[in-house]
What does this fold into?
Amino acid sequence: MRISRRTLLRALVATGVGGATGTAAYGYLYERRRLEVTTETIVVPRLSAALSGLRIGLLTDLHRSQWVSDAEVREATSQVMRLQPDLIVLGGDYVTFADPRYIEPAAEALSGLRAPHGVFAVLGNHDDDRDVPSALHRHGIEVLRDARTQLRIRNERLELVGIRYWTKRASEIAQAARGAVGPAILLAHDPRRLIEASTLNISLVLSGHTHGGQVILPVVGAIAARKFPVISGVASLGDTRMFVSRGVGTVYVPIRLNCPPEVALLTLKSPDAA
It folds into this structure.
């Protein structure tokens, strides 16, 4: 039985649960399961007018574990499919601490993802470099490990460059993007790669990793995410745009506060159509 937000808050007040305990209970019982759909339109430099309106579904940081169930991952998958995106991107951290017990279940829960222009994934810091990509591949998901693929959409070329979490230097990213023609989208788990992407004239970066801060306290804010250029939503550096998703799961503590999980639908817009 799902507990409504109002019912939970009334129960906490009625039973006199202390502030910290009550807040933690709310974050554990309710907010970490309150999956939202975020829709965002992003004006992408160098994107052709023909590609304006392209819709990308972004799903990241599932963290399948004892705290994140198959049902929660499948619900996120279903939400993405209801949005009917043209292209689907998976941003990494499919399990927590590369736990082998959850790798195959996580990949299987994602197996229903389909999009006209494909489903592409990159690896996060909680994924390993062998078992996770193998499991995703078995379920029809292409993993870009420091690799580039060229899509042909509406008779236009769109480059996808996917890097592993451990690929950080601009020279390494440039190697992965070598041969790209036209606008490129960098799939990078860590939003700190915005800096390198900007130096390489990459048009758009899609990331996760931060969980949006996961726990955002009044006045204090998101302590755990202060080292990142942006913890969620849209950012820019020079002519490079970025979107950072809050992701689906949790890590270290199974709590979210003022930071519900999300799946995102991003609509790309050409500057010529702006």
